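Long-time lurker, first post. I've been practising inverse folding by hand and with some scripts of my own, and I keep getting stuck on stretches where the structure tokens seem ambiguous. Below is the full token string for one chain I'm working on. Before anyone asks, I'm not after the true native sequence, just a reasonable design that respects the backbone. If someone could post their per-position residues I'd love to compare against what I wrote down in my notebook.
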């Protein structure tokens, strides 16, 4: 969805965005067109090969995946290896559940250092009476 259904400021500056996925299952070899079309409103006629989708998305995004260690699925080696095969060893990472936030911070810092993009975060005041504040990167 990030590839065709969003618009990022960084693209206007000729820079890439960032996608961080996480899970505890191996990568699916394809995305079923029916479910993808339902989620996006697209009209894909065939299933989408995951490796091809990642290749296309990597033109606009730096893509990272965190394999989440869990007791119910203790062997993240296979899961991580399936992502590493598609996105590369350095971007297929592993983390315990309680360290995910630290891992995400590490990824963002690495992205900022390698891309030359500032990671200054503006946090506007929350409007009186509640509501949502936006964070601009």
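-- Answer (accepted) --
I ran through it position by position. Result:
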């Amino acid at each position: 969805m990030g590839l065709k259904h969003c618009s990022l400021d960084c693209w206007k500056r000729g820079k890439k965005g960032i996608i961080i996925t996480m899970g505890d299952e191996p990568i699916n070899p394809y995305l079923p067109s029916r479910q993808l079309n339902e989620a996006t409103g697209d009209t894909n006629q065939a299933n989408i090969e995951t490796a091809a989708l990642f290749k296309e998305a990597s033109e606009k995004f730096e893509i990272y995946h965190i394999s989440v260690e869990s007791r119910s699925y203790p062997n993240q080696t296979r899961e991580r290896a399936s992502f590493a095969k598609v996105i590369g060893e350095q971007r297929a990472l592993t983390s315990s559940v309680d360290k995910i936030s630290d891992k995400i911070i590490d990824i963002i810092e690495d992205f900022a250092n390698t891309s030359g993009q500032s990671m200054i975060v503006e946090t506007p005041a929350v409007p009186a009476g509640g509501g949502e504040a936006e964070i601009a990167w």
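A couple of notes from the structure itself: Residues 9-115 form one domain. The two ends are 20 Å apart (CA to CA). Happy to go over any region you disagree with.
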